[in-house]
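New to this. Help decode the following:
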Amino acid sequence: MGEPAHKQDLVVMLNVTELTNLVRKAVKQELDSRSEPSNVMTTDEAGVVLKLDPKTVAKYASAGKLPAHRLGPEWRFLRGELLRWLEGQGR
């Protein structure tokens, strides 16, 4: 059986320059999205943000001194929570 009668194929014609530009734009968008910082961070990544040794970050998380979430044996940190916590430390 074929496709439903209401479905139509779309044919787009591009010259080489247009196709090249389209591919470059798609690749750039993908690479840019990969370079954005993740909202969920490991202990090492949180240490970079806080400029602390990862062992200190884990110790503070265990003591409840940092906003953190336990994921099995590991800690995870939400970037926004850490930044809000950091801003509040100067008060």
Q: What stands out?
A: The chain has a mean pLDDT of 85. Strands lie at 40-41, 69-71, 74-78. Residues 60 and 66 are 6 Å apart (CA to CA). Residues 40-88 form one domain.
